[in-house]
Amino acid sequence: MRDDDVSEPSLRRRVLVVEDDDALRSSVARVLSRAGFEVTAAATGAAAVAVARGLLPDAAVIDVFLPDAGGLGVARALREACGPTPILFVTGLALAAVREALAPAPVLFKPFTRRQLLASLRRIAA
Question: Which of 27, 51, 97, 125 is the most exposed place for a label (fewest CB within 10 A)?
Fold first, then answer.
């Protein structure tokens, strides 16, 4: 994720970040924390669902391709465990097929900027 110098207003929302790449997960969590979100991060789908039950996130940022479970499966399990949760999918594959498979869910393609991440999350968590 590129680190644009952007000042964003703060929001107090609980966000679950599910990303297997350690550096990207840390970067996304840092950006969201600085913007005022309460962030919980998980490296796997199983960990995300387990933590979500106690957290009840207001929104989730989920990598489409996780090593233990696909992002769609994690999204389904999260919604079963927590109810309707707005989800922003992120992926490195900027293919029309990926966008079509996830429609109507919002998709953010890597690499993305802080501005794009925050704007996308605001749209789904409003």
Answer: 97
**In the block, which residue shows the tokens 């794009």?**
116
Amino acid in the structure at residue 71 = G
Total-model pTM: 0.85
Tokens coding 13: 């929302």
7-32 per-position pLDDT tens digit: 444 446 899 999 999 999 999 999 99
What residue ranges define each of the domains in the chain, with the CATH number in brackets? 14-125 (3.40.50.2300)
Q: How many CB atoms lie within 10 A of CB 25?
A: 19
pLDDT (tens digit per residue) in 34-55: 999 999 999 999 999 999 999 8
